Each structure stands twice: as C-alpha cells, then as structure tokens.
Amino acid sequence: MGKVQGEGDYASAKKFDDDEAAFVKSGRVDQAARDAEPKSQAEADEMKRAEEAGKSRSRGEEASSRKPASGANGKPITGGK
C-alpha cells in the first residue's frame, strides 16, 4: 500500500497506533495521568476553560461515543491496519 499524505498517511497512522499500544503495555499510563493532573487551582481552572472552549466547537458528542469513520465502501477506516 502506497503512502498517502495528509489525513490518510498510513505509515504515520501505523506508527502512532504501535507507539500507543506499546505505551499502554508499558504500565506507565497511571503515572502519566498523575503527572498530568493540575498543580494548582489556577491550572485546574485553565484546563476547565480549555475543555469548555474545545467542546463549544464540537458537534455536541463526546469523542468516545462517535462511530468510526467509514470509507467509500462503508467499512470502517482503520488507519491502514
């Protein structure tokens, strides 16, 4: 399969998927989540404002509840896997 640039960059999508899976298997997720927690109330407030700003531009659905995108054949797009 040839490399497509932009939204369909298969090599980059596969690398991302592989790196993500390796990170999850590494057992470092909990520590990374703790490291990402706000360090102050001001930082927590800023994070909340950023989240609300992002949601204000969304289509009104949570990312985790979206259906996978479908290609022209109606099958889910899998990022080149």
Fold blueprint:
Layout lengths: L9 H17 L2 H8 L4 H16 L25
Structure characterization notes:
This protein is an all-alpha fold. The chain has a domain at 24-54. 51% of the residues lie in helices and 0% in strands. It contains 3 helices and no strands. It starts with 9 loop residues before the first helix and ends in a 25-residue tail after the last helix. The model has no long low-confidence stretch (mean pLDDT 81).
Give the tags.
about 0% strand, mainly alpha, 3 helices, about 80 residues, about 50% helix
The helix/strand order is HHH
Helical run tally: 3
Low-pLDDT runs of 5+ residues are: none
State the major sheet: none
Helix fraction, binned, reads: 40-55%
Query: How far apart, in Å, are the first and last alpha carbons?
Result: 10 Å
* CA-atom Rg in angstroms: 17 Å
Tell me how many strands there are. 0
Class inferred from helices and paired strands: mainly alpha
Based on Cα principal axes, name the global outline: flat
Mean pLDDT level = 81
β-sheet strand percentage: under 5%
